[in-house]
Amino acid sequence: MYKAIYAWSIAFALLVAYACGSLGVQAQVAPTNSATISGSVSDIAGKPVAHANVSLSGPRNASTQTDTHGLFVFVGMPFGTYQLSAAAQDLGTATRSVTVEGDTDVAIQYEPASLHGLKVIANVSSTANAQFNVTPASVTQVNPIQNAFAGQTSWRTILEQIPGVSEAGRGNGEVNFADTTDGPFVPVQIAINGALPYETQTLLDDMPLIGEGYTSSPGQGTNLALYPLNGFGSADVVRGPGANAPSIVDSIGGSFVLHPLGVVSANHYEFSASTDPYGGIVTNALAAVHFHKLSAVVTYGVNDSPGPFSSANISFTPYMPSSIDGRAFECTGSCAVQPIIDNNYAGGAFVGRSLGLMQCCFNQTAGWTQHSGSMAVNYALSPSISAGIFYAGETSQMLNLYTSYQYVNFAPAAGYAGPLAPGVYCLGSAGGFGTVPVLQSASLFEEKITAQLGRGTLRLAALQNRTWSSQSNNYPGSATVQLYGEGSLCSNATANCSGGVYQQTFFTGGSYNVNYGGATTGPVATSYGTNTSNNRDLLLSYATPLGENLHAGVSFVKSMYNEGAWESYAGPGYGGFLCIAAIPESQTTNELRLFVGGNPSAKTSLDLSGYFVNASYHVPDPNQYIPFNSGPYTGPYQDESYTYAAPRLGFVWRPTAAMAIRASVGGGFAEAPLTDLVGSNSAPIVNNPSSPTFYETTLTNLALRPETSFAFDVGTDIRLHRNTVLSFDVYRSNLYGQLYNATSATGTFTGPEGTLPLFTNQFDNLGVSRYEGVLLDLRHDAPHGMYWKLSGGLTRGYIVSLPAGFYNAAGATCVRATNTNCANVSVVTNINFDGCFDAAIPYAQGLGTLGYRWNSEKYVDVVGTYYGNNNSYYRPAFVEFDGHVGYPVTKSMSLLLTFRNITGRYDGPVNTDSPANVTGAPTISGPPFPLYPDTYGPRTVILTAQMHL
CATH 3.30.70.420: does it fit domain 31-122? Predict the structure, then answer.
């Protein structure tokens, strides 16, 4: 590694020496946190104003003139608050304040003198934002806090409406208990340009976020559900290998960069109250204060929801009674579990279970309460030094999360004539009676200092990212319940039917004393567990201009993650309170970046960055056997370390003010997920005890190599008209050594069931994989009048080559037609990743928006989102429509109506947790690959009242 750093240092020195002596004088300094500010100037009638003088004063001063179309652009402007001035002949000069926290598109229009002469609208609409990108990477901005104040409670919709981006965490076996659409416990993990969630980095102020919630694991992608929408002023979806990317770690497809709320220049207050899709309440409040050198912004939000079910719904226990009123019980006939078919799903799907016995009525709720908020405080210590702190936190609580909800077909045998009609019911199905809360929380705390040293900017920041979750459960021993349906009771009043026979019995709703599992009173078992994680980051960076034509800098980020011990206690049903083995693990990443850039000419910019990474793991020795009740794990441990170095290069050419042609190329690095490294070697077990055909075992592979990549992105932004922008991108990423849970035949094993073939499951590295695609975006936006947007993306992810012998067992040839001597048959070269990697890569995505705006608060639009095959809902391709109506009631209050899922497409209230055999899935051997269909969410109307002072 040190030789690589030395070689890179020489290369940078040569480049700097050459650039300082040869580049021209047209420089654009681009600090680490910088933005592009573009826009237009128009007169009172809305016509373009050519050759108007536009200037900015603030963190950096700059000025320019509009072109013949009234357009202007500033590149590489540091984040902060600017005074924007426009001056045009015969129209006068006026100034307004604009806060920049990311790429900003500004519409400036002169007004009659009675209205103070100038109107400035920044980021007119998040759904139809005609922003103009002049950076080497493809960048799409989103506005989390704006969505929160419009009644959104999840990151899901914001991300899924960006072609090339998919959201993982639901479906495909990842259904977690009460997996209610947009519920706070449903994980949301972003995947960019086809890359899997753990190959996509989420950053806050250039520092990585790593954490785990109740339903997510570390190393599998950042779970955005842990972090509040109302805490972030903007966020950037950065696709491809941007040359100025703050990190290449876990950024194979790109990065999702969060920006905290920034400095405000005046006092203002906002409040919104909304309904949620289930009749709950969503509230958000913001208070922004500016006092001399102090700027502070505080937000707070509450989502109190009843969820999709009320206490009137029947709920039942999944445990079959062992005795009823002291008589032994046996389930026979239609009481047994059978699949049912969901006819709304093409090809048919097993979406529930058919039961001939229903047990009522342990009423359970699917409701939740979530509190979220943030605080950003900045203080100017001097004209050149500012300090700030940022806090964002979220806490979610749900009762009986350990209970899942699913559709069940009540179908008793012929002869039943009870009051409960046979049919499909949505019932709770697992674990626990009574109010047993499950909690999940996360908190971010950042401290940062920014200082001007000479002509450069020094940044120092530290971040604490903590997550915590807990669960508890109460399994019943016996209870008095109502029974419907049929089964068999012993003819004798005995619990074991000694000396008696079983007789078919119909239950018509009467109350019975039901015993489960042999206990006579009290719970069979109780359990309780907590989990914690701690992610700490440190950032140090310095960027400075070199002369008038060059900028350079260095940054260092250290990230330390500790997965805390899982403390779990089992109740009397397990023989007493026992501490399950608690196994803490940790990983550390150090990343050094050297960068330099400049403008070879007035119309071009060039950026080069070099990255040097060291990743280390501290994990238990996989050869150690850990008993169930051994207490906290103390060792031995094994340490693993990886190093990597790669460059990235970016280029932008501006042939005209209305066109930018960009290109970027470079390497990337993805750490092996921590959960793939941690574990113990298991003893061989048979696949089917009643009819064994082979043994299988699991091994931990600490010899995993990190994934590396080489990618490029080529694109353009063209302003076709003053308010119409076309964007187009083509990208490809070659990924070397992608991880896969490989299955290989390793001879035979002799056990209690005899000598049978042995198969080993172990994470391993593949050969070469590839993500590639095209993105097209055409958008028209204006301060008033018609606005529209059309965007789409085609994405493909596939394996190019596999390691030698990947399909062969003991040297034999794999005959896939008969599944002889084969392993890893769910991996097929040259087809799209269809669920093999626990994440869907959509073949196609699209978005269409059509609306009319009278002003920024009075508008109407319809948004259609296309989800192509292989989408994250594991459904056939479908289109979903939303509608929005905004209407100002007073000068300080407006109403917003959101019509969600207008067509009612896949609008079930909860996600099924039963597998489906999906027509069209790749048939490799045997039945199609099992997938888990997901619901989009209920068709509903959400009313939001917004107030701003």
Answer: no
